[in-house]
TrEMBL record, chain A:
InterPro entries (UniProt xref): MetI-like, MetI-like_sf
Domain ABC transmembrane type-1: start-end pairs: 88-268
CDD domains referenced in this protein's UniProt entry, alphabetically: TM_PBP2
Pfam entry (one): BPD_transp_1
Listed name of the protein: ABC transporter permease subunit
Annotated source species: Mesorhizobium qingshengii
Membrane topology: Multi-pass membrane protein
Polar residues: bias regions: 1-13
Automatic annotation (TrEMBL), chain B:
GO molecular function terms attached to this record: ATP binding
One Pfam family this sequence matches: ABC_tran
PROSITE patterns from the UniProt entry: ABC_TRANSPORTER_1, ABC_TRANSPORTER_2
Organism: Mesorhizobium qingshengii
Gene3D superfamilies: P-loop containing nucleotide triphosphate hydrolases (3.40.50.300)
UniProt similarity note: Belongs to the ABC transporter superfamily.
Domain ABC transporter: 2-234
Name of this chain's protein: ABC transporter ATP-binding protein
Keywords assigned by UniProt, alphabetized: ATP-binding, Cell inner membrane, Cell membrane, Membrane, Nucleotide-binding, Translocase, Transport
Listed InterPro entries: AAA+_ATPase, ABC_transporter-like_ATP-bd, ABC_transporter-like_CS, ABC_transporter_ATP-bind, P-loop_NTPase
Length: 282, 264
């Protein structure tokens, strides 16, 4: 106290040190938000200029205005057997199903692999092997086995979301500090109590990270799968538009995917903030 | 009464030579006593504590608590670690109540008992805070309250104040002395500080490394005076304190020097 009173210049430093919680981080994120918004505006302005002065042929680079017009047209009248909403919902449905499968299989199996040598020994080799393969390389095989319908696509996507979630749950179990486990045991925890009260919450930050990776992997696999074999979805819409050189529709599709990806990331960040505010502390 | 008889712990080392972390150690910890094990790092004092806690199996010998052989960790031995092991997702009160929750004590009762313990360690106003908003010393106090919550027969403390600054450390020593005077718990306390050992111990055992052994034991009762007065100054300038400190210091340093001599 006296130190701060005597030398006021040291005061902000000491007060920042006293509160290592969310305040510095929040002010840091608002300060980058401004910069990011300016960058975004500059990119759009550049696009505007490039289209206006026809730096590239309008056939290849549509103007923002055209894309906007096309957006409302695709929204209202549709393109390639469906409206924009129908295509978006088709894609979202697939990714939701795949994430569901990834979560409900990946988390329990990953936790078991972290806890048990036998489970880890049995499952780690097949998962490692298929996870290294590019999904589009085995998509033809899945189509031959499961047909051209939804099943092959959801299986493909589930395979790409399952592995990162499973790995993350396994890493989460292994990241539990041994002192924390010893402390719980010396407080009389049973094996079940140890799992539910210590291991599961300790693994949660890793699992959330795995979910973020799974969403990213799922989204990129999804669009790729729809480009090859689908009758609906954003990837299918983009591919159909590209066949007719309708670059404005391609842009509409890309923007929707970008917004979806951004929404997923923000949603996950919000969820992390709600579920694990203690992440990285202690 | 905790009885340690001929306890040995041997680890296989990477070079094929076994490491005798603990070599035929025998020790009794009577009720109402604070036994402090002091020694240089590697002398086996933490190994001894981990074996009593049940985290490490003995290679030889036995440890019994009130006649019951120790084979695994359990709620009858409360442990306070050097690194605090509080759960970041639970508030201070729920951290203290954790052991009671494991025993199936009802929510109201475990909260009431935990509040009383938080009062004992002077943290009644911090019950609802997350542990990461507390200072290091406060977190260790929560750790002590948590270990006491299940009313263990013995409290095992592994260099609990080792990571604290010297002022906080003194406050914590005072707190422990007064908690001990109030609860009469038997305590095994591990430290590498000779002053801390003499201030807190009713019995001080000096350990030496490779193999980990007890080389001397002293009885002291500075802690009773300390618990009453709360003033460390007069105790540490007591002639008997200075004399014991010198004796223990030479015990800890001498065999180490002799040993490096034989190794070379």
């Amino acid at each position: 106290m006296t130190l701060a009173a005597n030398s006021p210049t040291t005061f902000p430093i000491s007060s920042a040190r006293r509160e290592p919680g969310s305040r510095p981080r929040r002010s840091a994120s608002t300060s980058t938000l401004g910069i990011s918004l300016v960058t975004l505006a500059a990119l759009i302005a550049l696009w505007f200029l490039a289209a206006h002065f026809e730096w590239a042929s309008p056939l290849f680079l549509p103007s923002p205005a055209e894309v906007l017009t096309q957006f409302s047209a695709v929204w209202a009248d549709g393109y390639a057997n469906g409206t924009l909403l129908e295509h978006t919902l088709a894609s979202l449905g697939r990714i939701a199903a795949a994430l569901g499968v990834g979560i409900f299989l990946g988390i329990p199996l990953g936790l078991l692999m972290g806890l048990n040598r036998w489970v880890k020994g049995i499952f780690s080799v097949p998962i490692d092997l298929y996870w290294g393969l590019p999904p589009l390389a085995y998509l033809p095989l899945l189509i031959i086995w499961l047909g051209i319908g939804e099943t092959s696509k959801i299986v493909l996507l589930s395979l790409s979301t399952f592995a990162p979630i499973c790995f993350a749950a396994q890493a989460g179990v292994r990241s539990v500090p041994v002192e924390r486990i010893n402390a719980a045991l010396s407080l009389g925890a049973s094996r079940l109590q140890l799992f539910t009260s210590i291991i599961l919450p300790s693994a949660l930050p890793e699992i959330m990270t795995g979910l973020k990776i799974a969403i990213g992997a799922g989204l990129s696999t999804l669009v790729a799968a729809e480009l090859i074999a689908a009758q609906s979805g954003l990837g299918y819409m983009i591919m159909s538009a590209a066949n007719f050189l309708a670059t404005d529709v391609v842009f509409v599709g890309l923007i929707v995917i970008a917004v979806l990806a951004f929404a997923f990331t923000s949603g996950m960040r919000w969820l992390e903030h709600r579920l694990i505010p203690w992440k990285g502390k202690l | 009464m905790l009885r340690i008889r001929d306890a040995s712990v041997t680890f296989p080392a990477s070079d094929g030579q076994d490491v005798h972390a603990l070599d035929h150690v025998s020790l009794d910890i009577a009720p109402d006593s604070i036994v402090v094990a002091v020694g240089a790092s590697g002398c086996g004092k933490s190994t001894l504590l981990n074996a009593i806690a049940g985290f490490l199996p003995l290679s030889e010998g036995s440890i019994t608590l009130d006649g019951k052989e120790i084979v695994a960790p359990g709620g009858d031995r409360g442990v306070v670690f050097q690194k605090d092991t509080l759960l970041p997702w639970a508030n201070v009160l729920d951290n203290v109540a954790l052991g009671l929750k494991y025993r199936g004590v009802s929510r109201d009762e475990r909260h009431e008992r935990s509040r009383r313990l938080l009062e004992l360690v002077g943290l009644a106003d911090f019950a609802e805070k997350p542990p990461y908003e507390l200072s290091g010393g406060m977190r260790q106090r929560v750790g002590i309250a948590r270990a006491l919550a299940t009313d263990p027969k013995i409290l095992l403390m592994d260099e609990p104040f080792g990571a604290l600054d010297s002022l906080t450390r003194e406050t914590m020593q005072q707190l422990l002395a007064s908690v001990w005077a109030k609860t009469g718990k038997q305590i095994l306390f591990i430290t590498h500080s000779i002053e801390e050992a003499l201030t807190l111990g009713t019995t001080i055992v000096v350990m030496s490394p490779r193999p980990g052994r007890i080389v001397a034991r002293f009885d002291a009762d500075f802690v009773r005076e300390f618990a009453q007065s709360g003033d460390i100054g007069p105790i540490q300038s007591h002639p008997r304190f200075i004399e014991l400190r010198q004796e223990i210091r030479s015990l800890i340093h001498q065999p180490e020097g002799a040993r490096t001599g034989t190794l070379q």
